[in-house]
Amino acid sequence: MHAGEYRERLLPAWWVLALALGFIALIAIAYGAALGSGTGLSIFLAGTVIAIAVTWLSSPVIVADRAGLRVGRARLPRSAIGGLTILEPADFADLRHPKTAPTAFAMLRPSRSRRGVRIAVDDPQDPHPAWIVTSRRPEALVAALE
Predict the structure, then answer these.
(1) Chain center to CA of 46
(2) What does the alpha-carbon distance between residue 56 and residue 77 come to, in Å, rounded to a whole number?
(3) Helix residue ranges per DSSP H, the chain
(4) Quick check: 119 and 77 in contact, CB under 8 A?
(5) Which among 25, 56, 92, 135 is least buried, having the fewest CB atoms inside 10 angstroms?
(6) Cα–Cα distance between 72 and 58 in angstroms, integer?
(7) Angle at 61 between CA 7 and CA 68, to 5 degrees
(8) Per-residue pLDDT reduced to its tens digit, 3-37
(9) 139 by DSSP, 3-state: which?
């Protein structure tokens, strides 16, 4: 990654994966009791691999570079990026409600971070007046976009 570039994967909080693994363990114990410990262990290992893969593959990636901003599959060219505002937890909570910004593009992961960035969109053709994006390091994201 070059200077002025930013990359972040919004993985869920640790407890989300722990909850999934607990559920997988319950299923593995039930099948292990009925069909044998080898079957239960196989189910637990396969379920764990699947849970980790799904968690990784379904976590959106935020990339800010010379081309602009990419959040998941959505792209915003650098020419359309307007004002940038770092959102602290109180601000972020206010903007998360659909009534506040019903047409804003939102990539929200409150289990990951209660902070984020609001990006004003300077493109009259774009149906979204702003993007609201969760980030663990909003200062670094803003610095990469400025």
Answers:
(1) 25
(2) 26
(3) 14-35, 37-57, 89-95, 138-145
(4) no
(5) 56
(6) 9
(7) 60
(8) 568 999 998 888 989 999 999 999 999 999 999 99
(9) helix
